[in-house]
């Protein structure tokens, strides 16, 4: 028992992928900057597919510009496109930050992106004046699509943002840098809520909560151009060099913490997503360690309410039920640990990445939960489909991309992660932290009740 | 001066030629509006790429083929499930049943290219992947293979690979060479799709049976069940849809399109090419048809009826369907009369819909636009627009904001990417590419669209948008 | 159009009631007092059925004592039982407040409850000493079971609490009295959240949020005897005479506001539950009016997020769908107004009470929504069942008591109100206020998607 | 001194006589523990009322009768759906099908008494309501009418009304006179239920057919499907359950209980009365049986087998069932060995279960209690307890807190009202009245209960209960 059985992909083909390419992660990261604008240096599909995906999941606009590479760029390079793209964007949108996101095309063509950015800065200054131009920061983010996946792209982007923008000062700012990973607005709000209960001010690297979940209030909106509310202000990004420490809540996002640690001797900690009790406890302890602030009764009462819910429902409805979890390497591992905390069996965990942190984190879960776990590693949804036909489970947990599979398999799906487009509100509901755990307890339990208890409905009488 | 430079375009004055304001005093009634050219970099376009054009629009609607995307994982991921809503039924033309329902929405294969493939070329990997795919889904009737930016740039020869694999696997393996960067818009992908299907497939198979009333229905992708609406009408008229291109179609249907008596071209932007080619080579004539809105739908059913000597049947269908929808049409017209609308479809729907929306719903079309429309399309938009209507090629988000401000549309028909942006400006938006509660075609489809427009405009959220500091008079005080 | 068609009960029989008797409302109210203990003066069933119901709904302990009337009391009266019950409870639990809740038996027997309480006080003082005894307040709450229903019992209890405990001072306390009605912990927390965003301190009359949703933290719990955390402190109840105003969020709870208004010249407002946008707006305006505090951007941003959700999903998924709503007269009316705000049709609204406020509030909804509404007035679930067989709807909204009916009718049920025992977490999720509205938008939409869109699953692709 | 005054009871010293600590040196092995007396007012009992005893326990499990509660609306509301979980199947003994499944969970009727009824009496109203009810549900086979506190106090004569209505409606209309205040506990309601059914129903109807192996299964209410477990065993043995009292039973079955060859009494607290009366009047002998836990279940199946000369069949059932459950039993025993348990059932389950839980699960029974148990039941608890076990009649919440502190049970089998209270003290609790994931009876039921105890104790929440200030060593650092 308690073995981790790593099952690698035997095919060369990828069938029904559960990862996508690097640029998405970078676009997500830049979208979390106040008046931050991603400029994808590539074909139109590279931005349009992602905007489509964000719109579908967040039900919000996602402003992402593109340099529209075409045949001429393939032959002569993307110089003109990038320089004019930056210039047009700067002049028309007056952003605080532009994040240049490369793609397979611009990387294969071999564009001198750094050089082009320099030229663009000069041209922008010519057009808008030195002062206005200097206010617009440009971050170069290399995200070759043929290397790894969106999580790497996110990691690269956060590192590039930090490396480009951070400005050390003589004094600490008393704040904590938090790298949330590719998560939902609800998750980031929950992180901020926990910090506030601990009396800690955070610098989110970056904060997509408001940009991807903005009020509809035309009378108060930024117009001409319209910007979604919120995001991490440039000043905070610059200030991140002066924080007490950096906590990354995504096991794949470790480059920026390392860079900050190296440059500014700032302590850092990288973990899987703080999903469930132990992971959140660990996050809270790290906050305490880095800031010296006490763990307040308020936050422990919130914790106690989840524990209460778990005591009331986990053994009664959930215990021993087998779960398949798929998606994001950090979220899946967090979810696996949490379903084990609910007495369920994380029978199979499937991710598209091939990084060792996924395996290491899962080994810990297998040991703790005293159950064998099958890890589909560097795999795809087809592999999970085939696996589940042979090894049925009681519940699937993952994105909407598994919905038709779940339906065909007759297994109920609890929606978690990105993207969720076939139901509403999931982007607002945290899965992170104690309140996230509470949502999950309720949501998972109700899914189980729907599927397995309604057939004997008298059982639900009390 | 019919062209218009919007305030937000002062830094990109080239845009002036793309934006036209209808003026019937124009000598020719229309004006060569610039279109189908590359988007200005950094201007936040709504356009997609050529790969999206071929897989997302043309081939993704076919029920029994497997798609292999030769790309890094991203393009494969984005190609999965289709961005449009293309349901398929498992029934096959020979009466058999395809083993997976909505197979086209469920599976996609990719070569997952990595750095070393980029350096050393991906052709061997592609072969391996096609073999694996064929083994994984042995029941598919063909495998379609797609070039992408990466494989376009590294120069892999997809045709050679597909030829070899076709011989090896004994089923059609077809390369679609429309890498993302090809052409200014997804329209390039439509084009490649048409030519590829014509050249490699049409004429290569024979249908299980034919009738004297066989048609090709071209450019009909069964968005949210559109085709199933039209199918009923044709059935009622005794006309047999021999081949669809490509909604709810089978691979085989594409191969025997040469055997139809007539081709109907539904989406004239994405699919006229193939109809022309079939006419040229096989002598199958084609009609451009329009089934959006009751009048066009009736007219075109009549035209088809006339062609086949089925005038009476056509009239019967029209009468029956009109009777069904008239009361609802009347209701929606009473609710929508005078409301300002902006139709921002990919291309043809902007001109298909402008008249019916005016005529049957009484709405005021204040703006039209297209993402990938060509000159002929803009001509039609111009013709059908009333004076003062703004017509925009490839509108970008800043322009959209200005148009909303200046033209004050009360509803925009647009895409999902723009939908939530318009909402934030306080303007409802209905998805016209893949619909909200479709289908939108035919008689009943038009009513569905009217209902979606109606519900969007009358969504009480718009009236509740701003907090009132004062208690309204008739309230709970 | 826009008529309210009031359909009264034609039967004498009540079949499958949706109301219960007065004492429940009083037990609920007293449970919201910190160290407050209801003492039911009646048979054991009177407390046990309610404790069972609370346990099943809140999944929490509900400490309610009973005087255990038996045959001898029927003959000789309940004097001994009440006096010794109060004495035992005081000595063993040392509560801050004991609420004596009468029942049909004690009312029919004609016990001199006021007199018995006086005697009990003397005996308690004898036993525990004057000082200790004085700390324990006793509130007499008359709730004859054969008059009206639990909502009246709640109203009577809040009035009795206020009348017995309020202690006027010379100065205003700058606070606002809020009478929440019989609602869930999540609702009360949302009320407190809204007040805090407005910078207002509230006195909840009473606050069941913590008592009915308490953390599981044995190390921090009050023991010997165990008390659930929270509830309105006695000091606050005493201070309620000095508040800026009283807002009752339940149309049936108007006696205490009237009493406070009369005695202390304190402005008051009584409305249906602030469910949905307009009702919450109205609540916010009243808070502003009574306190002079501004409506903050923070709260309007929360409002904007609901509006955004409504704009995105209401017309697309919900418009024109017919809804049946049943239960609490205040919540049903609020829900009816809200589903109309979602473009749905509140086709039929069913309540067990016969009070005119229900009809008046619903008339307003019918007028606003421009739809005919059938009001089942003073009715029961059987009447709704019969109605729905003839007039099917797309969605039912109400308590779990309609679950088997909904299943037999094939109509999906969205759970709201009391009791909800066949799913988990509903007690924590507000339906009140903007955040409540957001929960409802998501929950109702997902219910509709489950039932009506999964059959054409491609429609959920975007 | 075997009695025990808990610290929390210093103000109510009468409680000492209700609390016994097992001491095998007691001369008689047991001791007259005070029980079935009125609860001390204000002491937070878990007991219910007599109305709950008759409707909630006895009659609510019958599938084809309608219940009319003569009360203010509250009692009717609380009587709806039953507080226990009593499923019924629509199949009737004569092969027909009752038109509503789980009818007993779905409908209840009340007279909704108001002030004027209290003043002027409610008998006419009751008649009217019975008529209406009969019209609303014409298919029911009987109407049962309940007195409550109110009608008990105002003195309505339910028997007279029912007699009149029975004549008028032509179906059985039966009054149950157990107002809430009657007797110290719900046990009084059981008693009334037994006598009423015996006096008014038994012997009034004949079964559609009989066999030589007909039994009455008395005191089996089909909690969460308990009866359906036993039914299988009897079927396998060739024994026919002619009448259930009352789980999944029909009204008719109660009326022909006199025709069985043998009565088995399952719940000996709630139902021995009726078995005795039937024996006395009709000569049908009865056996007290116990099907909780493998050994009692086997023993009692053997006894029934022996009675009917079906020893071989009994052995076959026992062998088959034991083989099925043995591996699971072994697993749960390995997990539960030595864990301290407190069994706090209504009555008999506390003594039914104590031995099997020790024997098959290896658990340490540290406390036993009952809500409405009588002297004979406490005798059995005392007999079966090991030295030092605390045995409490009618425990109140403060006592529970003290017992948890002093005896440190690791699990409590109790009711839903206590469950969440124990949780707050950090002690898991499983609902023993109506079960969590039942049924709990018979061989497989015992395994279900073992699983529920196991999952409750091993719920990881208990280990995570308190926040650790220090990072555990093997963690994610």
Short description:
Chains B, D: This is Nitrogenase molybdenum-iron protein alpha chain. With 462 residues, chain A is α/β, with parallel strands linked by helices. In chain A, 48% of the residues lie in helices and 14% in strands.
Can you give a write-up of this model?
The complex is a heterotetramer, with two copies of chain A (about 450 residues) and two copies of chain B (about 475 residues). In chain A, about 50% of the residues lie in helices and about 15% in strands. Chain A has about 450 residues and is an alpha/beta fold. Chain A has three domains: about 1-15 and about 295-450, Nitrogenase molybdenum iron protein domain (Rossmann fold, 3-Layer(aba) Sandwich), CATH 3.40.50; about 20-145, Rossmann fold (3-Layer(aba) Sandwich), CATH 3.40.50; about 175-210 and about 230-290, Nitrogenase molybdenum iron protein domain (Rossmann fold). In chain A, the strands form three sheets. A six-stranded parallel sheet of chain A has the order 1-13-12-11-14-15, sandwiched between helices. In chain A, α8 runs parallel beside α11 (about 255-265) and α13 (about 295-320) packs parallel to α18. Chain A is globular. Chain A starts with a strand and ends in a 9-residue tail after the last helix. The model of chain A has no long low-confidence stretch (mean pLDDT about 95). The mean pLDDT of chain B is about 95. Among the domains of chain B are: about 50-200, Rossmann fold; about 215-315, 3-Layer(aba) Sandwich (Rossmann fold). In chain B, strands 1-12-11-10-13-14 form a six-stranded mixed sheet, sandwiched between helices. Chain B has a four-stranded parallel sheet with strand order 3-2-4-5, sandwiched between helices. Chain B is built from 18 helices and 14 strands. In chain B, α5 runs parallel beside α7 (about 160-170) and α12 (about 295-310) packs antiparallel against α13 (about 310-335). Chain B is globular, with a radius of gyration of 23 Å. By secondary structure, chain B is of the alpha/beta class. The longest helix of chain B has 26 residues, at about 310-335. Chain B has helices at about 50-60, 75-80, 105, 115-120, 125-135, 150-155, 160-170, 185-200, 225-235, 250-255, 270-280, 295-310, 310-335, 350-360, 375-385, 395-405, 415-425, 440-460; strands at about 20, 65-70, 110, 140-145, 170-175, 215-220, 240-245, 260-265, 285-290, 340-345, 365-370, 390-395, 410-415, 430. The chains are: A alpha/beta (about 450), B alpha/beta (about 475). β2 (about 15) of chain C pairs antiparallel with β3 (about 110) of chain D.
